[in-house]
Amino acid sequence: MVLKNNVEKNDSQVIENTIAKGFLSKEEAEEKRKELYASLTSEDKTRMKPYLESGGSKIKKTKIEKGKKRQGSLYKKRKLEILETKRVENAILAADAEMLLQTEACGYLESENEMESTLEVSQEEIKNKYVDENTARQIYNISLENGPYGIKYTRSGRYGLLYGEQGHVAMMDCLSLNTKTEFSVGETIRDVTFLNNERLFALAQSNNVFVYDEQGNEIHRMEKHTCPHALEYLPYHWLLASIGRQGILRYHDTSTGTSISEHYTKLGTCNVLRQNPENSVLSCGHKNGVVTYWSPASSQYLAKILAHRGAVTDVAFDLNGLTMVTSGIDGQVKVWDLRMYRQVHSYYARYHSPKSIDISQRGILGVGHGCHVTFWKDALKTKVKKPYMYHRLSGGSSLKTLRFRVFEDVVGVGHTKGISSIVIPGSGEPNLDSTEYNLNPFEEKKQRREAEVKSLLDKLSPNMISIDTSIVASIKNNEEAQNAPEIKTIQQDSEQINLVDENRDNHPLLNKIKNDSPLQDENNHDSAIHDTHEDVRSLNSKQKDDSTVHDKNKDDSSLQNKLSDKKHHPVALRRFF
To answer: pTM of whole model > 0.70?
Structure first.
């Protein structure tokens, strides 16, 4: 990228060499400087201005202006003009370098004219012509047996976990492309996920969920997670969730080793489980085309959407958590607005029904269907007519999983014959956020330990998972808070009146009076009524004392529960409770 309407590269190189050798005269140097200024636009002059007025350039300019005022030889005047011309040219080169080294925006692949299309650019062409050496190393194919294979990445994108359906597992360092561990479990693996970092990962095997360390040693077997088909890990809550053949969604706290909750979806076998990165709500895609949202604090689903006419094959969310994309066996890829729970638009996957979908950090939608992988730019905001890029798997392999790698323009594709890694320009976030827990791919051992301890101290409660994130630290309405004691008093008074009426109707002495003969003595009748009223008063006072003691015990127990809950809340959110 160069300045607009700038001089050609060859002419600029000749000027630079001529000035360096000092062959230009005073008039030639001044003329070249005027040509440089004339070739610049107003935008180029604005970008070049800071380099002309900052640092050593300003000092040189002051020396040149002072030298012009003095009377000197022609040689000195010529030298000052040459220095001024060099200063202008250096400012132009510095402005060009700033544009080349700009990393705040991602670099998309763009065509030069209407006759060309980015859809026709192949991975071989990108590897040989358009990217640097380090990025070109990320384009490769790994042929493996015992497929089909899938791939998952850590939150930092540094490590990738390859798993075959017949039991083969391997962890790979994606920067150095070295294998960290490799082993076989000898049974079917349906899904995998990393836990807090690359040191632990979980496998959804045939009968249970197993946890392994980075060396491949079995750490734990979760007996309650039976017949799992899909796994998902919530990093801010340290929760491992699984769902499988029985349709039971289970939450497990990995920091304490306790089971949090179990929810019966009552919708049969489920193979799709993804989390919303904004609020950590899990979405389950069922075989009847329904997508449900779940939280560990609720035994019922939070929301329910009829997304497809057939089984749901995959679900994906963007980083803001406001857009959801679903794919189904009916061949449709639908985009949903979660603020209204309405469909925005949809796409149709040609040749095969979509098997796996994912959304990159920059909003590029990847769809894998059969042996085809298509990528759509700006497909979440508006309906795009044609894809951004396309890739076809070699050998007619059938795709199983598709996952974007964070902070890189890399996509991992798992298929029946192994693993493929391709480059999609502009898909990754160029600005690395190293302050977030476990998001720094270059962190050292000490940094990883500190991040793990801090994330454990700031662990959020499972009860805080909700669709509406604004309920956290929310305050009740002032009118409701002021009227709450009055409403409680009125309710207690009405309950007491009803209780007195029931006691009067059921009192044995009053029933006896009602059943006695009218010829009974009048004095005995009055005394019986007096005794009855005395008994009712004593009974009411006794019940009132019992209710007072019960309310006091209830208040004490609620206060203790509040205090105990406050102790268990994280430090970062304790002020809200």
So the answer is: no
